[in-house]
Every structure is written in structure tokens, then in C-alpha cells.
What does this fold into?
Amino acid sequence: MTSASTTRTLEHVISSEQFDREILDDIFARADRLAGHRDTRLAGRIMATLFYEPSTRTRLSFESAMLRLGGSVMGTEAAREFSSVIKGETLEDTIRMVSSYADVIVLRHDQAGAAARAAAVASVPVVNAGDGPGEHPTQALLDLYTIRSERGTADGVHIAFCGDLRFGRTVHSLVQLLSLHPGVRMSFVAPEVVQVGADLLARMAAAGVVFQLTDRLDDVISSVDVVYQTRVQKERFTDLVDFEAARRAIRIDAEVMRALPPNAIVMHPLPRVDEIATEVDSDPRAAYFRQARNGVAVRMAVLDLLLG
Ligand code: ASP
It folds into this structure.
């Protein structure tokens, strides 16, 4: 990890595709320095959170990050119901306007590509806080930061992505960040109906990543370093029969934990429904609450990079 900040910066944070190892090292060095820290470097700056889909961790950890750096926050939750969208306003018009009220916009939207549309018309930085089944790049940053802090490095890890790999935007973003690391192996563990998309697999193949697809966690559990479990994204299904089949497919419980190597970890972007049994929470290999805690430092680093 570098200790000095690079001179490179980002205009917006829309996709994990934007990152390379140099920017990642810069963000993680900033996160290391900022963890548990408070100062006033962003005093006078305003962050708007515009959330068209529900959120707990992402919105509150962004707000906490901004407040810890001395900035101010304003926002609208449930923007679909409580903003001018209900009157028919386009996302583009909303963003043009919020650009003149805030210095950075953190946007969560239900449509893939919404953050890129917003960035195209914004006059301030836009951060994609989840765009439908598209991406969630700051979650991927905190996920990667967690892997590095729990295991020392992400180089060479064998990671099993489990659950909803079709609609799970955090998976789409983390896969891309991990592909920048030599020797990474990926196992995509999901039933056919929520298996990872061909486009992402083609990109992984082009990047030289070694991967396999399976619908059985048993096939890989004893050789993985990281299990990345995800919630089946009920809100993206049109057919609830498919959802029910997917929901029951992969579950982490005490029996699965017995087969997991002693130094492996279990991650989850949260919220969890029942895809990880609560009996797993007390196992030291359950890293998901530590992972959520890392969100504040990583988002402080992102805001520092964009506005500092
Ligand atoms: N919180 C994550 C997201 O916004 C994961 C999830 O909702 O299941 O994508």
C-alpha cells in the first residue's frame, strides 16, 4: 500500500471499471489514515443523498463519513415517492438542479445506468450508491478493503460468490475489482436462474481470471478463502416462483462452516434475510459486521478523493 496520495483523482464514481491498482491503493491508504478520525477538511461542503431505493448502511455510512470530515448533509429518502419524480420530473432535470445545491451527489436508483445518466448532466461529482441490478462500486471498495484487512492481500484468493449473481450489483462491482489482482480464482455458486451473466464472464475471461460455475457450495467450500454470500434480490424478480427457487438454493449454516477452512472468512453486503443462519454470527470467520463497519472509513476516503 502506498502512503503518499497520488495526484490522480476521479471526477465521478460510477463503475468499478474506473479503478486500477494505483487508485485503489490511494483510496485504501486514505481509508487507513481516516479510520476512526474526525476533522474539518470538508467544512462548508454539502453532500446530497438522493435515494430512489431503500438503504440503511449505504446512506448512513455516507452521511457519517461526510459529517466526520466536517461537511454537511442533506437528502431525500424514498425519492420515488417524495420528490418531483411523482410529478413526472426526469432524473436529468433533478440532477441538474441538485448540482446547484450540493458539492457532491450520492445517488441510489432502481435502474441500471442511472448513475451514468446523472453524471452526464451533473456539474458536481456523482457517486453511484447502487443502480438497480447494475453496480455498487463503493460497496465493492469496502468489500475489497475488508478482504485486504482480514487476509493481508487480495492477491491469489479463491472467492466463492454465492446467492444472486444475476441481479446482485455488489457482486458485479467486486468481481471487476478483484480481477485487477493476480492469481485470484472465482467460483460462482448459484442456481441457473440467478447465475452470473455471460457479459461479466466474458470480461473475466479476457482479463485472464480463472473461474468456475457450479450450483453446489459443497464442490468448493473446502478450498475457498472467502465466501461472499448475497441476498436473493426479490425486488428484481417478475416471477416469484423463480425467486422462491433461488432463495432456498444456497444457505450458510453451522454445517457449511464445519467444511470451511479455519482461516477463511464469510462476507455479505447485508441486509441478510435467511441466507446466513444467525448461528454463524458468533464464529470468528463471520466477517460481515466488520465489513459493514469498514464502510465509513472507505466512504470518507472516497469523499476526500472527490472533494479534498
Ligand atoms: N445492500 C446491498 C445493495 O444495495 C445488497 C442488497 O441489497 O442485497 O445492493
